[in-house]
Amino acid sequence: MAPSDHVLSLRQRFCLAIGAPIIADAGLDPRALGGWAADHVARARGEHELHQAAVEALRDAYAIDSRASLMAWARERLPARRELAHVVAAFSIATLAHYVSDDDAWQAILLAGKLAQTTYHSWDDFATTCAPVPDEVRAAWAELPWTTELDVTVLAPVAAPRAACPRCGAHPTRPSPTAYIYCEQCGRLVDYDFARACATPLERPGPAYEAIRAELAPKLAAAHGDLLRTRAIQRALFDAWVDACPGAQSIRIQDPAYRAALVAMLAEGETRAAFDPEACARRAALDAATARLAFVTVDGQPRVVGETYRAMEAAMFAHEARRHELAVAHRIYEMHPDHASPALIRRIGMSAYVQGWLPYLAEAEAQALLARTDLAPRDNLAAPPDLAPRDNLAAPPIAVLTCPHCDRALEIAVTATRIVCAHCGRPVEVPKL
Ligand SMILES: [Zn+2]
Ligand SMILES: [Zn+2]
Questions:
Q1: Where are the domains of the chain?
Q2: What is the rounded CA–CA span in Å between residue 173 and residue 396?
């Protein structure tokens, strides 16, 4: 990807400036994506050498050597809102290393900028998280108001306690390591934290799925009318999809039995839909509406044209409603390896769609979509805002248990009977302590 050669918008400059202390310290230009302004590239050692330098910089500083390792590295930082300057710097340099497209990098950089803006009070406040900030960076910061409108939709992080477990009645007392929230007492899947899922913007399960589906389309067409072959191809498709976006899945996906059951459920949904004339008609209407989508560039970012988007969204909801009827009729929800409720499975399924579209929607449309899909954070208002999870007096004492599957230490509530290992995702029966 060539270094950015267009004029950056104010919000892009603001978010890029979050990484400025790191980029400047590396001797690069903090005002350009990749660290090199277009008019300076010609005077540099050439694109090949810039690429090599970017690859080495990411490897030496962060042990990042691929798109996947960049995503895994960011997954540990963005949701926790830590090392945001490094996150911006890494994504910026990753464009030169060809690990991400400019568009992907901007998504992550804008999100990191928004997270910094909503976590700290000012540039001075933010500076306390960075190593010494050079004077020229402070001068550049002074030109960018801390309250710059970024037009990025981020959801408030979920505060404990949330909804009670439907099986044992326990309330979560600690933040979940992933978007899939398992009960701390009995290990049941209790909820899905969409805000957490959105903090890993590059996973993009929706686009990943569409790409794999396009690849397998000829095979699926050839299997038309053959239920067994269609099911086998759909399973291969979802198997590839799980590999493409591991961070978008439950921590339990590492367990082969869990993975097989999830893939089987997803494939069954697609297979039954392929043999249902009503679902096929609604899918065709959805594809037609998708083909009519139009995009414009607003403030340096692609945005979908509202009218074309709303037509597609209506077709999507109509299709999903039929899929729900089929899932009930064919008992597909019962195949879910977490034995989650149909409502929760639908929310998780919808999350991939919403996550894919949020960056292209204006704030008002984004909020409407979140409300309609029940993905906006819930129960947060009921939580006392300053109640740190650790200070929660209702929380039972913590004990340390070694996972019998992966041998790593787990912090658990002493009253827990069954938990999901936060490292390997295997269920662990807790011995009476
Ligand atoms: Zn429970
Ligand atoms: Zn484990």
A1: 10-142, 155-193+377-433, 204-372
A2: 9
